[in-house]
Amino acid sequence: ILNVEQSPQSLHVQEGDSTNFTCSFPSSNFYALHWYRWETAKSPKALFVMTLNGDEKKKGRISATLNTKEGYSYLYIKGSQPEDSATYLCAFMQTGANNLFFGTGTRLTVIP
Amino acid sequence: DGGITQSPKYLFRKEGQNVTLSCEQNLNHDAMYWYRQDPGQGLRLIYYSQIVNDFQKGDIAEGYSVSREKKESFPLTVTSAQKNPTAFYLCASTIRFQPANYGYTFGSGTRLTVV
Known about the structure:
The structure holds two protein chains of two kinds.
Chain A (H helix, E strand, L loop, with lengths): L4 E3 L2 E5 L4 E6 L5 E9 L6 E6 L5 E4 L2 E6 L4 E6 L8 E9 L6 E2 L3 E6 L1
Chain B lengths: L3 E4 L2 E4 L5 E7 L5 E7 L6 E8 L2 E4 L6 E3 L9 E3 L8 E8 L10 E2 L3 E5 L1
Parallel strand pairs in B: 2-11
Antiparallel strand pairs in B: 1-3, 3-8, 4-5, 4-9, 5-6, 7-8, 9-10, 9-11
């Protein structure tokens, strides 16, 4: 089982603040890195799928970067809104594998 | 709308009983997965299937069984051999051979409690 670590475990921010969190994964045999948003009582939804070192993806106020050589990815949220409150999961796929290994998630609460 | 349906949402099982969790998708995805979530842990893979009539064990397959008789359906049976079955179970699917381009689609989960 591969080790995928996310930090912090939880985070409280004020509405309008920008925030970021980290996903660390093994730097060898990298294939893909996924980010998901999981709102309470709903199913996880894919945010980004990243494959190339240096990749940067953006969806509205949310963006992600990827460093495969050092084994980390950052997720940034600009101007947090209450609807951004959710658990953000990252998941790593190794070359030759058929499945994702998930981190424990970062639980974000945006206070109005 | 296409998606994944898991049922039931809540399930109670007596010790020693087998129970089956349903997962159905209408996305025409080839690959389907079962994950288990326990407090403080990431999602852990139980079983996965890349094609009809074929499936592989994941990291925590002991005490579980699956079948894949139809592309749309991937039921999970929690047997009496599973020592600690109380958990939240998530089903997912994706396009086969495209995990570097497409994310997984998840169901809304089944919470199983042993009473």
